[in-house]
Amino acid sequence: MKEDSIIEEIRQIREAHAAKFNYDLWAIYKDIKESEKKSKRTYVSYPPKLIQTNETIKN
Hints:
This protein has 59 residues and is an all-alpha fold. The chain has one domain (5-58). The chain has helices at residues 5-20, 25-38, 54-58. The chain is extended. It starts with a helix and ends with a helix.
């Protein structure tokens, strides 16, 4: 497969960001949320969609 320079750059940035927080997912999450608060963008959250399973179809 051909190497994509954009994907490689994104992976390097993601790796550096994770290393900055010692790969602690909770710390990474808090940093991202803090960045969202500081930005002037509007972020939205949608409620989870319920997935119909075979069991719910039968009932």
